[in-house]
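User: Write out your own:

AI:
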Amino acid sequence: MEERVTRRQFLKKAGGVAAAAAVAGPVILSQRVFGANERIIMGAIGCGGMGSGDINYFRANPEVEFAAVCDVDRNHLEEAVDKAGGKAAPYSDFRKLLERKDIDAVIVATPDHWHALPTILACESGKDVYCEKPLATSIGEGRAMVNAARRYGRVVQVGTQQRSGAHFQRAVEIVRSGQIGKVTLCRTWNVGNELPDGIGNPPDGNPPPELDYDMWLGPAPKRPYNPNRSHYTFRHFWDYAGGKITDWGTHLIDIIHWGMGVDAPLAVAASGGKYAIPDNRETPDTQEVIFDHPGFTLTYSYRGANGYPMDGEDYGMQFHGTDGTLFIDRGGFKVTPEDERTEPVTSGGSAQNEPHVRNFLDCVKSRARPTCDVEITHRTTTACHLGNIALLTGRKLYWDRENERIVNDEEANRLLCKPYRAPWHL
């Protein structure tokens, strides 16, 4: 008999007591009402590449004021104080920042393995959250984050900013209107050639004096310090991330979900591995994932050792319909008709980060759900994690969307969550 579990049972496995408690029902904290010109006081947790950029996007809005910044790298922290306007208090422990009662909202732009806990604790402390993608490093973490947002009545926007781009919105309208006919195949891809060295093979050693490496690791397993296990290249290690599919694939698959009106696959199969790049990464340099959906198939392709473009592009999204094909990326979109069954359409790109941040700030004031609400991006990130789980197990997986379980595969289900290193826990 197929094993069935209740949502409460799953959450206990996924995130412990805190996650399980989140199903008990919403607890809406008091929310101050913002006046038309009132300041939104913010903090930033994680101030490296993405965090630094986010601070700039937020500061472009006149009502934003940064009261605090936090990073475990002293160099990043010092730079962030300047970027945030010179008056923000610096913290090396995000929990101290979250204790402040004057902060309304926070950015969480840490490495992926540090997205869940700061977001959940920020919600518990009555703060809204702008969290970078991918939402989490496991499906269980993602569900716990959604539950925290709902339980504490918080606005949580995720940085899958393409949904805020006007040309993406127009392209989705074209697909949904039937202008390109019935869509039976969607493709997404990232290609590039990182040879000969990839990210290299630096030796293990001592962490630099400006980095609190134990805090950087946080809930991840204790490992010897390696330069590639921190900052941007962390994305190539399973302890902290999921490779290219969770990094870039989250953006691409999100648009397919939106255009096709779906949020979960029926089944997932994958193939690939680390075939060619002689560096110390763990995640694949080649990966093909096939997602089964009702009435159409979605594929994600990653080539890190061959840069031959797909249809002339090194990344993109395509909707293949019976009357035409729509290609889209951040620079624009193009509809190519099948014979004369539809009209050709072209469009340039549009701003995405700026309106995405603006949408979050508006929702902080109105308490409406944002464009990329945490539940939406949890579902997209889940699909990416399933692609990795299918690769690691070597099996086609059948997904139970409602219970968030893989059907009849307990080995695969054990990969839905990641254990936390003590003393950290969800």
Observations:
- The domain at 164-350 is CATH 3.30.360.10 (Dihydrodipicolinate Reductase; domain 2).
